[in-house]
Amino acid sequence: MPPYLVLARKYRPSTFSDVIGQGHVVQTLKNSITSGRVGHAFLFCGVRGVGKTTVARILAKSLNCTGRKPDDADPCNKCVSCREISGGYSVDVVEIDGASNTSVENIREINDNIKYPPVASLYKIIIIDEVHMISINAFNALLKTLEEPPAHAKFIFATTESHKVPATINSRCQRFNFRTISTADISSGLSRILEQENLQADSESIYAIAREARGSFRDALSLLDQVIAFSDGPITMGQVSSILGIDGRDGLATLVGMAIARDSQGALRLLNELFQKGYDPDQFVIDLIQYLRNLIIVATIKDGGVISSLVDVSHSELEEMSKIAAQSSSMELQNLFAIVLKAEAEIRKSLNPWVALEMMTLRLANASQLVDLRTLVEKLDKLERTHVVKQPEMGVSHVRPKSGSIDLSAETSREFKPADNESEITTALNRKVEETDKCAQSFATERIDPAPIGNPADVWIGLKTRIRGHGHESVLSLMEHAELVSYGPKMVEIGFTKAVYRDQFEASIKNKPDLKSILDDFFGKAQVKTLMLSEETSLVNHKPYDVVLDGQTDQHRAIRSEAMENPVIRSALKEFENSSVEEIRILAPR
Predict the structure, then answer these.
(1) Side-chain half-sphere exposure of 431, counting CA atoms within 13 A
(2) What is the per-residue pLDDT across 531-544, written as a single tens digit (0 to 9) for each?
(3) 98, 99, 260, 340: most buried, per Cβ within 10 A?
(4) Are residues 41 and 172 in the same domain?
(5) Domain total for the chain?
(6) Residue 457 phi/psi, 5° resolution?
(7) CA nearest to 82, candidates 96, 56, 62
(8) Chain segment 346-379, per-residue pLDDT in tens
(9) Which of 177, 199, 228 is the endpoint of a domain?
(10) pTM surpassing 0.70?
């Protein structure tokens, strides 16, 4: 039985016309060959399996081919030179593995041999695969030869990591970037190979194999070899899904549909089935991210031609995506995408990735119940505007009725009847004018004095200056043992180190109306509240309320109390059920 030759070697392109998906590279090389303007060094860059080494061999055959027509760049593959290069035993075309020949000695050997003319060909060609693997000293040893090579010498370098090739090498070569091959081109190539092999396969299975290759035609041929070995007849989608381990891909649409329908139970059941089949959770999340991306494109763009160029899926999958996209909005799908993208790192780092995947699935199923941040901001803005209008303590002048309220329901519910004569109309108009004057007299404008501005220490000094000179020297001495903890439009908190000072201060405010008047004018009629501080005050230590007690300072407790009493915060807590304030931070000193 003859040895089996894998498809990747059996159907390796032998001419430029056979190369798939690299038209820009092929056309440039063919034009340079037919015109005779061929460079001395080439650098082929691209991912694995896209044809770098294959094109390098075809280029070498074309340059040394003796049976090639002058106006045709494709080699004949029949002459002695073409057969020797295809067989890998040509003495004038040397292919070197850069990973195995990394030292300076290997490059020196190349430099010594390249000086001599070719034995039986037009050019002596050196092909170095994975050239980025050779050492920096080896690159330096190659520089002089690359800059001024012999007329009969050609260098072709191939690499999958072009960023590791020194700039000095890059600048001496003609660089060609090989693209990843599209799924459609790979599918077309696989179909031709299956026809030559007399094998049958449906279009869905061929497309699935091409998609799993991820732009590499060699990988696609390796996967096709594996599927052919597994199947004993026509290749089906079930066989492809089973052998390639992509059973979970069919569940992506089902899972997204369940998430949109809020079917948490069904989504967890689906994950359990995938777990039993041994599907990789990391790969499932990656596939789900790509699927949601395609779904968002389908939901956003209405032009079918543009969708086909942006979404790399089969026709049946595209129809299924269109049905799912019609059941939800683009914003909802973007929320699902954000949840999955955030959970990807958690699943990858988790010791139990399936549990993390289940929790992510539950978040997807409940994503529609989440309130959009924009909606929350709009509600808070509305509450704040309402607060500014309704709260006189914020320093806004407003008009309020002195007693009672106006009921317009009776007036609006009356039925209009035409008057019998002109005197009745005049009497009715006079009555309305009198009622309007009475309503206007029942309103009065109240002016609220503005509160002081600045940090508590400066405000405290300002208050002492205001009191000084009004005959309250004893109060000023008491204030030397106190600090202004916090102040606001509704509440002023003053802290004392000893109860005796606090009691005397409260008694002074109670018994001296003029002192009370000064405080009201200074703080805008806010309520004055006295506190006991954690540490005794001294002239050296001006911040006794910074002492921590039970994990918080007096200042933190005072500011938290003021924040929780803020009308906007209270309205927000009332508006959103089961909500609470997680944390209150001091962003800047007051």
Answers:
(1) 6
(2) 877 554 443 444 44
(3) 340
(4) yes
(5) 5
(6) -65, -45
(7) 62
(8) 888 888 888 988 899 888 888 766 555 666 677 7
(9) 177
(10) no
